[in-house]
Amino acid sequence: MVPKGLSTKSFNTTAASSLTASGGKTTRPALDRMVKNMRDGKIARVVVYKLDRCGRSLTHLCILIDEMNRLGIPLVCTSQGIDTSENNPCAKFQLDVLKAVCEFERNLIRERVNSGLASARARGVRLGRPSTLPRRRDDVMELRKQGKGIREIARQLKMPVASVFKVLKSSETGAGAKGRQK
Known about the structure:
Number of strands: 3
CATH topology of the largest domain: Rossmann fold
Number of domains: 2
Radius of gyration: 28 Å
Order of helices and strands: HEHEEHHHH
Strand content: under 5%
CATH superfamily of the largest domain: Resolvase, N-terminal catalytic domain
Largest sheet: 3 strands, mixed
CATH class of the largest domain: Alpha Beta
Shape: elongated
Distance between the termini: 60 Å
């Protein structure tokens, strides 16, 4: 359904889609289809009644607006007077304000993530992928006792040569049973 008061005469092709799903939903088929069509070059302009209908969240809206800008697709919001097309003198200002809000939101998210990581480190939480080397230590040491070379051990256990070196080095220092050290 085309929003009330919007003339479609100036558009070559008009495809109307009703984005009726809740903005909080993680998947919205009509919105996902629209984004795919934008990327495929099938959409020249996106017209929405209200800006909050366009994205799933403020962050998603910011990413969507940024992508639309990169693709050169203007956003027209009929009820809020937003028109980011190139021939509108207020378009650059509106787009810059939207970008500033998006950048602010991204920075807040980044700050929260970094704060959470710092807090976790302070509590002694080990971050990252768990090391598998301590579990392979006994296998590596057994093959080494049999007189096998480092490359042969790596080939047999299907692990990188550098990992075999790390296991052997850690067993010499006594840290092999403890795992990764800070």
